[in-house]
Amino acid sequence: MTSAKLVWQSKLVLLAVLPFAGVNVLLEGRWWLAQSPVVAAWTIGLSALLGLTTWAVRAATLEAAATGAAITASLMFSTVSFPYAPWHTAIVPILAVSLLAFAATRAGRRKKERLGTAEARQGRRASQVAANLGLAALISLLPVQSWLVESGLVRSTLVPTPVFVLTLAALAEAAADTVSSEIGQVFGGQPRLITTLRPVATGRDGAVSLTGTFAGVLAAGIVADVGTWALRGDWTLFWVSCAGAVFGFFFDSLLGATLEEWGWLNNEAVNFLSTASAAGVALGLLCLR
Prior knowledge:
Mean pLDDT: 90
Structural class: mainly alpha
Strand content: under 5%
Distance between the termini: 46 Å
Shape: globular
Helix content: over 70%
Oligomer: single chain
């Protein structure tokens, strides 16, 4: 009942992300088609291929796959650098997030079905994709990048695309959250509530386990590492994005144990806010440097 009452939050997350990502793809695609057709071709082609593959393996509904493709294309356009190579864009960390989430979700599926925590057979919904990846896409929009650099919050000399530090933190958090939850349910044993540390049922909002936590940290490190390589970044890009991601997935559990458990937020809202917290912590760490 609570989840049904809060469905407006899922719609709000989708509405906050998809129009901006879609418009950005159209504008950037048109510009790159005129300036460098190879960039436009690789971006649209790889994004569409990823979306179709995700739908074909039933990791997402058709609407969710299309949403993911739009977000991927937006992120790829926003992270173009020269000499150009498609694997030196956001497609690499997005692939890492997708593969980690797919593997973790499929792990121990029979046990999750018995517990009633398994993902739907048709895969993730569009609002779930927007909640996990949307904040990263919004941060990487050109007006946001320009404001962050011009305000002095992010130094333009940090990496070829400086705001990708925040974007990568959000992507790494999305992977960490999914992996920690899915792996913890299967291999984590008795979970404990993050706020009280008392034992709770598996699958409870805000429940954590040592195994799930370790898996989440590892997932965050993997995404941060491949993202650093893809963006030709340095050690700062890695550790700042990784630290932000780790904070974010603990924050996700805290929100789950409180606001989600109290019926104030649904899962999509929690996920979106958690990726935002990861980016926020990454920004704070950059300001302290």
